[in-house]
Write a structure and sequence with these properties.
Oligomer: single chain
Low-confidence stretches: none
CATH superfamily of one domain: Fumarate reductase/succinate dehydrogenase flavoprotein-like, C-terminal domain
Strand content: 5-15%
Largest sheet: 2 strands, parallel
Order of helices and strands: HHHHEHHEHEE
Helix content: 55-70%
Number of strands: 4
Structural class: mainly alpha
Distance between the termini: 37 Å
Mean pLDDT: 80
CATH architecture of one domain: Up-down Bundle
Number of helices: 7
Radius of gyration: 23 Å
Strand order of the largest sheet: 1-2
CATH topology of one domain: Methane Monooxygenase Hydroxylase, Chain G, domain 1
């Protein structure tokens, strides 16, 4: 972020947080015994096993290693499939790590989940593009293939949380 943007996010983030807290304090839950609900929620969260930050920190190193070794610049179908398998296993594991009531713990849990999901999308895209392009070299498809692949792979999340893939050919350059 440049200029005043970072300072603005801090100032207005704090203001938004205070306003949200005031608004929540005036909501219908507070008027109808919201204190008991809040206590019950805290009790429930405290009873859940807590993820340890050390465990989650290890996730990012595992993701980086898997992506670099099998899905890096030099790649092939077998390596990409192995990396996908590795990250799919990680997605199942990190998906059952409980959300932490601690904001930092919650942020790290969500960050780990999203990092795994991002890696999965990158690897799936690399598997679909059966050519070498730019700095990414597919050993099993060493040539650039403009006939089939000059364009953009598109991915959108479907209503069930899966990926819907498409391809958009590049527009021809004007003369």
């Amino acid at each position: 972020m440049g200029g005043n943007a970072l300072a603005e996010t801090l100032v207005f983030g704090a203001r938004a947080g205070r306003a949200a807290a005031l608004w929540a304090g005036k909501g219908p839950g507070k008027q109808q015994g919201g204190g008991a609900l809040e206590e019950g929620l805290h009790s429930l969260l405290a009873s859940l096993p807590q993820p340890r930050a050390v465990e989650l920190r290890g996730w990012f190193g595992k993701i980086r290693q898997c992506m670099w070794e099998k899905g890096g610049i030099l790649r092939n179908r077998q390596g990409l499939q192995e990396a996908l398998g590795c990250l799919e296993d990680m997605a199942r594991e990190v998906g059952v790590v409980p959300n932490s009531p601690d904001p930092l713990g919650l942020a790290r849990t969500l960050e780990a989940r999203l990092a795994v999901r991002t890696g999965l999308v990158i690897l799936e895209a690399a598997l679909r593009r059966e050519e070498s392009r730019g700095a990414h070299f597919r050993e099993d498809f060493p040539q650039q293939d403009d006939t089939r692949w000059l364009g953009h792979l598109l991915v959108k999340q479907d209503e069930k949380g899966g990926c819907r893939w498409g391809f958009e050919p590049a527009s021809p350059c004007p003369p």
